[in-house]
Amino acid sequence: MLSIGKTGWIEKEKPVCGSLDAICRPIVLAPCTSDVHTVWAGAIGERQNMILGHEAVVEVVEPVKDFKPGDRVIVPAITPDWGALESQAGYLMHSGGMLCGWKFSNFKDGVFAEYFHVNHADANLAHLPENVKPENAVMLCDMVVTGFHGVELADVKFGDSVCVIGIGPVGLMAVAGANKRGASYIYEVGSRPNCVEAAKYYGETDIINYKNGDIVEQVLEKTKNKGVDRVIIAGGDVNTFEQAIKMLKPGGAVGNVNYLGEGEYIKIPRIEWVLVWDIKQSMQVSLQEEDSRWKRWLHS
Ligand SMILES: [Zn+2]
Q1: pLDDT at 248
Q2: What's the CA-to-centroid distance between 278 and ligand 1, angstroms?
Q3: Tens digit of pLDDT per residue, the chain (300 long)?
Q4: Domain definitions of the chain by residue range
Q5: What's the gap in Å between 205 CA and the centre of ligand 1?
Q6: Ligand 1 centroid distance, CA of 55 (Å)
Q7: 88 Cα–ligand 1 center, Å
Q8: How much is the pLDDT for 84?
């Protein structure tokens, strides 16, 4: 990425390896929609002369403790600083500041390079199992784990009804993750026939086709006006958050793993948000409980 709206090839020095780091050489790379949004929509602001890419299966060139040269490893899109306070509190994505756990093609050069640098490599790399093909494993860097992270953010529990908005690879993996967590109903919003077929394979129970009308109305109709316990946003635009809130039960939760388009703000519907206010209350209580548990442990 040379600047917003402009791409090209660029020569850079081979990165320098620190004591906790690794230098890697790509075997298989995958471009992400985020790369496209970063360049063509300027979704994270201006970046100049930055190497794109954050999905790679690689060979280790300069090693660390658990990885030697020639090892084939998976590099995740998110590579936190594990010593940061935010990481220790469980917010790996935000280690060192908002979104700072996402480094490749955001705050540092990405993986579409001959060589690239991985921080905290012992904690951030994973060995590629011998029976897994690199071109399959590259889907683990972002698509699979981001979908699963949406499930974690929405805190899907056994028996929940879940709506997944978006039927790309991340949405499909959110369906798979919700299914693994024991959701009873999984409504998947999408229309592309091959993705609808895949969603069925991963465990959706109902397809909500936005071409057949308002998705909120369709979800409410299917749930007898109750709404769903959890919504995972893995697609859509600046209006999607509003739809997610409107189809949610009181006390439900939304897990968002989407850029939500572009622009400065997202919309939150006033009346329905009052219902969701309950979440904030219960979240505060549980955070306080967590905090006092931590303090008790510290003083014991
Ligand atoms: Zn990505």
Answers
A1: 92
A2: 32
A3: 999 999 999 999 999 999 999 999 999 999 998 899 899 988 888 999 999 999 999 999 998 889 999 999 999 999 999 999 999 999 999 999 988 999 999 999 999 999 999 999 999 999 999 999 999 999 999 999 999 999 999 999 999 999 999 999 999 999 999 999 999 999 999 999 999 999 999 999 999 999 999 999 999 999 999 999 999 999 998 899 999 999 999 889 999 998 787 778 888 888 887 766 554 444 433 444 444 444 444 444
A4: 22-141, 152-285
A5: 27
A6: 7
A7: 24
A8: 95
User: CA-based angle 211:217:219, to the nearest 5?
Assistant: 90
Q: Which residues fall inside 5 Å of ion ligand 1, going by CB? A: 32, 34, 142
Q: How far apart are CA 147 and CA 43, in angstroms?
A: 20
Q: What is d(CA 297, CA 79) in angstroms, rounded to the nearest whole number?
A: 28
CATH code given to domain 152-285 = 3.40.50.720
- Ligand 1 centroid from CA 291, angstroms: 32
- How far, in Å, CA of 90 to CA of 72, rounded? 28
As given in the structure block, the two tokens for residue 228 are 């769903």
Distance 223 CA to ligand 1 centre (A): 32
- Ligand 1 centre and the CA of 167: distance in Å? 15
Asked if the domains 22-141 and 152-285 are classified in one and the same CATH topology, the answer is: no
How many CA within 13 A on the CB side of residue 196?
10
CA–CA distance, 239 with 176 (Å, rounded to integer): 25
Angle between helices 143-153 and 169-180 (to 10 degrees): 50
CA of 282 to the centre of ligand 1 (A): 31
Q: Calculate how far, in angstroms, residue 73's C-alpha sits from the geometric centre of ligand 1.
A: 18
Place of tokens 């280690």: 95
CA of 1 to the centre of ligand 1 (A): 15
CATH architecture of 22-141: Alpha-Beta Complex (3.90)
Distance 104 CA to ligand 1 centre (A): 10
